[in-house]
Structure of D-3-phosphoglycerate dehydrogenase:
Amino acid sequence: MSPLKRSYVFDFDSTLTRVEALDVLAEITLVNNPKKDEIIEEIISITNLGIDGEISFTESLERRIKLLQANKADLQTLIVQLKDKVSHSIARNKSFFEDFSEDIYVISCGFKEFIDPIVAQYNIPSERVFANTFEFDENDSIVGFDQENVLSTHNGKIACLKNLNLEGEVQVIGDGYSDYVTKEAGVADKFFAYTENVSRTKTTENADHVVPNMDEFLYVNKLPRTISYPKNRIHILLLENVHPDAFEKLSKDGFTVETVSTSLSEDELIKKMKDVHVLGIRSKTQVTKRVLDAADKLMVVGAFCIGTKQIDLEACKENGVVVFNAPYSNTRSVVELAIGEIIMLMRSVFQRSTELHKGVWNKTAAGSREVRGKKLGIVGYGNIGKQLSVLAEALGLDVYYYDVEDKLALGNATKIEKLSDLLAISDVITLHVDDNAANKNYIGADEIAQMKDGAILVNLSRGFVVDIKALKAALVSGKLAGAAVDVYPEEPAKNGAFTTDLKGLENVILTPHVGGSTEEAQKDIADFVPNKIMAYINSGNTVDAVNFPNIRLPKQEKSHRFLHIHQNVPGVMAKINKVLAKYDMNITGQYLSTDSKVGYVITDLNKQYNPKVIKKLKEIEGTIKFRVLY
Ligand SMILES: NC(=O)C1=CN([C@@H]2O[C@H](COP(=O)(O)OP(=O)(O)OC[C@H]3O[C@@H](n4cnc5c(N)ncnc54)[C@H](O)[C@@H]3O)[C@@H](O)[C@H]2O)C=CC1
Ligand SMILES: O=C(O)CCC(=O)C(=O)O
């Protein structure tokens, strides 16, 4: 059976290019005009009125040309600029325009003078470009256009397509209403609303397909393309008010991104997960086994924070879901808050401030101490603990620390072998242990009893680390002089009502888990985690994954890449290679990384392959996930 003959008819402005050419021309010709902005705004609004069919196209063209005041030389400048403004996914799929050259047409209400040279780079010859032409006066100024050309008239594209009488299925791809009407008039078989650069409701609501880029167009038509699976089909769900930069970055890379400002309950999340490929969370959302089992398509969880205790990492691994976090982005923010709180508590600033707010002047030095020369006991000498150690020392504190692991002392800090010894000597104890479940109630009544009378406790790690009842008792009895608490055993999913047993106690600073909530930290996280997500989705890299064999892959050069995640049981690798050998795959590189549970093998191939190989690879016993990257 011979393949279906098709003709592909592309619009030019805002489809093949990212811009409306006449708007760019206006920028060029009006560069020194004091009324430039006003005129450009007028031109854009006239362009849109024409595109949306609100005024006749001829009128729109006449009015714009008058305002443009352009000449032949300006067109040369325009062409140079337009060459850089080809739509990204069009440029990415240049080979389609080469391979299907015979079947591709451009029908535009723009002008051949600038369209021809741009599309010539994509193998589209002038004779398959249908567009208007300018009229020039003796000084080469543009004074009008060929009024005989059907494309200068209302519904000109319909007339043009009728005249062409193209063979086979006629597909029109464009962003404007004038493109859609070709389908309505029966001269096109299918209309694809192209929204990579602009999305117009009047166009999209009537389209056979809305295609956000050329990848999707080629995918829908099962045509060869540079990206195996269009990124717009990859759905990313970002919860918990993740910084908007993450949305920007991931959307710009072509993914479909949805944001929700709060965390979701397990049941709410389960309902959503069916179509989610990438989930972004912060510390509140619980990614349980139930959630994961309902998430067939899930490939990645991005924790936009340090802690990953809220995620069932083992279940993720068993389901082939790679987890990334941001291990350093908010470290400094936590440290600065800890320092600030230690000073505030030592000076009883919150009591003095509360009194004054109530109208009481209480100028006193009682219970107000400098931090200089005091002993700071850091529990957990990891990223945060260490940085705090350095800054605290600079403030004149004597730093001591205790860690379950052997950690190198920074500066003049002193390592203490036993927690009890650290508790006994410190004026301030600050907790920076990790979110390991074994740390539940790590600091309880016994530990507090070992602390100095009048000492201060700071917890910016995890709520479950401190027994809140024991802490309250110690604060009420005066055993402890103050506390700063940022994290709680139970925290609400969203902003609103909240209470804790510590509410109302004097010299207790309560903050709503904001240790890492600074603009700098959130911005940095919104850069770091999306980069990791994109590196995995786009090329298979798992560097810095917290639950998965880490592998840094070489750049994929003109090859297909098979990514195979499997249970790490004997024989799987051999079976994979047997299948690859059977189908005569020309392997250019193979990379394997394993841990005790999973194996991750990446195979690069340098030629077309028999699609049956994919089915066979997926069928290998022990396969967890498999995907192909072009
Ligand atoms: N309040 C907030 O907004 C934020 C809280 N955090 C929390 O801060 C904590 C520390 O973060 P990082 O320093 O980045 O982690 P890290 O993993 O670099 O350091 C944790 C350190 O604690 C040690 N440790 C674990 N259990 C211990 C124990 N029982 N006794 C003594 N040492 C113990 C570990 O050996 C490690 O050196 C984490 O729980 C994290 O989730 C992190 C960022 C923001
Ligand atoms: O800011 C957040 O969402 C959580 C901060 C935190 O606790 C972490 O990074 O582990």
The pocket of NAI (ligand 1) is lined by residues 306-307, 330-331, 334, 379-385, 402-405, 407, 432-436, 439, 442, 460-462, 486-487, 513, 515-516 (CB under 6 Å). The longest strand covers residues 104-111. The mean pLDDT is 95. The chain has 25 helices and 24 strands.
